[in-house]
Amino acid sequence: MVEKEKEVTKDSTDNMEEIGVFPGFSKSNNIWWFAFGSLMLANFITRLHRVDQPAWVCWDETHFGKMASWYINRTFFFDVHPPLGKMLIAGMGYTTGYNATFPFEKPGDEYLDHNWLGMRLGCTLLGCAIVPFSFLTVWQFTGSLIASTLAGIILVFDIGIITLNRYILLDPILLFFISGSVWTMSQFRSCKSPFSNSWWIWLAATGVFLSGAIAVKFVGLFVVLYVGIFTIGQLWDVLGDTSKDFFHFLKHFLARSLCLIALPVILYMTYFYIHLTILSKSGTGDGFFFVVIPNHFGGESFVQRHNAKRGGLRSCCKSKKSSNRWSLSSLSFPSISRRNWCQTTTGHHLCS
Questions:
Q1: Where in the sequence is the domain holding 340, given as residue range(s)?
Q2: What's the predicted TM-score (pTM) here?
């Protein structure tokens, strides 16, 4: 009886593998690994070949290279994008010996003897991960080596993606987290044992990648929406399973809320905490505070408030000696000026 059941199972598996025009392959098949390995080789060749050329500032490298220098110098600045991608670029430069002295003034400036290559190479390597993530995602959804290989080939030879991957930009980092989010979600989808170790690992990994996507650029919200719709569909199926009680659905809901909502939010706030901790010196972004936000520049607690009605900026600094200094700038936001300022100290009031 057991032997007959094994034969039936084997026949069913064989039939599933042969569905479609082309024969199916499993990961244990040498053809599968040959296809995957060939794509990875082509992936690295097309991205890393002469990645040091051109040896001058290209396109938006002037922005993100400059911001990396500000991170390394710990100089405060303001930017419209969340901080994770820029901190990663700064980390790449710092660990490869970049001393943050190149000005990144405009495209076309030659790097000369500055150690800048680590930042470009780091962004390129993160961009290289897009191909295996996409290959494995298509494989997970379809089980077709043909479809997976076709998806990999399209990405390997896409000129737009190759170009974005080869420079000091946020785009390869963003695409790394977006494609990673979809891949980990597909891996979680394939887990057949709820609340097993692998089930929790892939669910938490999806949350980590989601936090990375939205913490690089806000356009990462689209992959959050995609995973959210998929999660709602899964929860709907769990709720519709009449063989399980409502407590079973509640466990699934809480697990997803923890890993796909709470974990990304905590990580997102952590990135900003690290961002504000690193940038401890006064810099070009000081004047962009238009609400009361505390920061620490040079050992002083610094608070700024934008006066929208008057178009000025009011600043308050409290030093370690507990002396209070009030200043009112007559210049418009976000500039900071010492012109027309008043200083109040204990028993004294000075204006100039």
A1: 286-351
A2: 0.78
Evaluate whether residue 15 is within a structural domain: no
Does 22 fall in a domain?
Answer: no
Q: Are 188 and 230 in contact, with CB atoms under 8 Å apart?
A: no
Residue that has been written with the tokens 């390869």 in this structure: 172
Which amino acid, residue 67? M
**CA 156 from centroid of its chain's CA atoms:** 21
Domain boundary among 254, 274, 294: 274
Phi and psi at residue 308, in whole multiples of 5°?
-65, -35
Largest CA distance in the chain: 99
- Return the H-helix or E-strand segment holding 305: strand 300-307
Indicate whether 245 and 103 sit together in one domain: yes
pLDDT in tens, the chain (352 residues): 444 444 444 444 344 343 344 455 666 678 999 999 999 999 999 999 999 999 999 988 999 999 999 999 999 988 889 999 999 999 999 999 999 989 898 898 999 889 999 999 999 999 999 999 999 999 999 999 999 999 999 999 999 999 999 999 999 999 999 999 999 999 999 998 999 999 999 999 999 999 999 999 999 999 999 999 999 999 999 999 889 999 999 999 999 999 999 999 999 999 999 999 998 887 777 666 644 454 455 544 444 444 433 344 444 444 444 344 444 333 344 444 444 444 444 444 444 4
3-state secondary structure at position 297: strand
Residue 182 falls inside a structural domain: yes
Strand 342-345 and strand 348-351: pairing? antiparallel
